[in-house]
Each structure stands twice: as C-alpha cells, then as structure tokens.
Design a protein that fits this description.
With about 130 residues, this protein is an alpha+beta fold. The chain has one helix spanning about 1-25; strands spanning about 30-40, 40-45, 50-55, 60, 70, 80, 85-90, 115-120, 125, 130. The strands form two sheets. Strands 1, 2, 5, 6, 9 and 10 form a six-stranded mixed beta sheet that branches. The N and C termini lie far apart (about 70 Å).
Length: about 130
Amino acid sequence: MIARRSGLSLLLLAACVLASGCNGSAGEGLASVEGTVTLDGQPLPNAQVIFQPAAGRPSTAITDAEGKYQLQYTMDQAGAEVGSHAVKVTTAIDQPDDTRASEQVPKKYNLESELVEEVEPGKNTIDFELSK
C-alpha cells in the first residue's frame, strides 16, 4: 500500500512538473516596456496603463507626475509578454482612502479602447499621445 501511494505521488509530481514546463515559467518571454502618456499635449499623472495580451496575464503601471510609466508583469518582475496587447489607459482607479479617482481619459482609450500595441523582444518605448 505504501509503495502504491509513493508511486502515485511520484506520478502526480511528474505530471505537475510537465504541466508547468509546457506552460513556461512566469516571466518567460517578457520584454521591457516604458513610455510617456500625455493628454492634449500635457503629461497625464496617476493614470493606470494596462497591457492585456490575447491570452495570459496583463501588465500594468501607474504614471508618475511627468506621465512616465514602466510596466510590471508581477510585483517582482518588470515588463510585459512579447506579442500583441490590447491597451487601456484610465485615471478612474481606487485610492488609498477607498474612493475612486475621477476619469479624465475619454472612453475611446479605456472602456471602449481600440488601442493595440506590439511588444517586441528587448526594450520597448511606447508613448501614448491621447486627446479629448
């Protein structure tokens, strides 16, 4: 009985290792993405930038006072998956005091966004010049 359980445990462990190997590890195929977001020619601070691949985890960033952003894949990994991404930019993000900031960005860049960007291997600089 113990040998049977041990064999089953090894089989399950091997299946888990193979399954994770087939999907790749987190961060495999990531590229650096940074840029600047402007709205009507002015830097857009405190905006959330979201890059969503067709399949997989999104990468996000919050712009600084100069509208600059650098995407994060996870808390510990910068970048975004290589490939095509739907992109959304919004200022309606939750605040530390449990309120939501007002939306300054037109829907055509967030709720109804048609922005699409290609992330290439290596370092990418992708700027967004938004207008009302």
